């Protein structure tokens, strides 16, 4: 069992009043991992590299692929870890706990570097739009609400709804980016995406229910007569 990524902020550099170093962007952390001298990059090393942003980083890692067209069944596989992570965020756990069999999963550094190079342009474009703002949506209490939303969205994500995995995945991605960059505007966009996802789910359920009543109702009456 492994506890990772303390959520408390770093202490000031020293008593002389020096300002803390600027916060590294998501792309900077990926670049450092891709160019490190380690042979393999593990899930644990990724989480430790992101420090107090580990919750957002891991949510992004699992949600972003689902926001893109993927083979059927992908959402069920990648959505399950989000349930686990979002639940911990929702209950206010100060550090992200992951079983050792997950934290020890790894890939070759060369493969990680290739993956990082592919997503780097997109991540840097997003980072230019993101910045610390609307801090009311980045407080510890707000993080719990974000965790509750991601928890509910992750359950929707795992449902076998045709093309229904993309809206909740996009919402979780927005939440994750907002948490990583302390951007309340991105978190607000995540809430809008969450509302849209639940509206889509309600519409899908209404269609299924209406279809069942239309086709199954006459059959039930026929066999019940």
What does this structure look like?
Residues 1-13 have a biased composition (Polar residues). The chain crosses the membrane at residues 76-99. InterPro entries: ExoD (IPR010331). This is Exopolysaccharide biosynthesis protein. The model is unreliable at 5-15 (pLDDT under 50). The longest helix has 41 residues, at 184-224. α1 (26-34) packs across α2. This protein is mainly alpha-helical. It is built from nine helices and four strands. The protein has one domain (2-6, 23-224).
Q: How would you describe the shape?
A: globular
Number of helices: 9
Cα separation of the termini: 60 Å
Helix fraction by DSSP (H/I, runs of at least 4) = 55-70%
- Largest beta sheet: what is the strand line-up? 1-3
Rg result: 20 Å
| Class inferred from helices and paired strands | mainly alpha
Characterize this entry briefly.
It contains 9 helices and 4 strands; from the N terminus they run E-H-E-H-H-H-E-H-E-H-H-H-H.
Write the layout of secondary structure elements.
Elements: E1 2-4, H1 26-34, E2 40-42, H2 43-50, H3 54-63, H4 74-90, E3 96-98, H5 100-103, E4 106-108, H6 109-129, H7 140-157, H8 166-181, H9 184-224
Antiparallel strand pairs: 1-3, 2-4
Q: What would the keywords be for this entry?
A:
225 residues; mainly alpha; two-stranded antiparallel ribbon; two-stranded antiparallel sheet; 9 helices; 4 strands; 5% strand; transmembrane; Exopolysaccharide biosynthesis protein; transmembrane helix; membrane
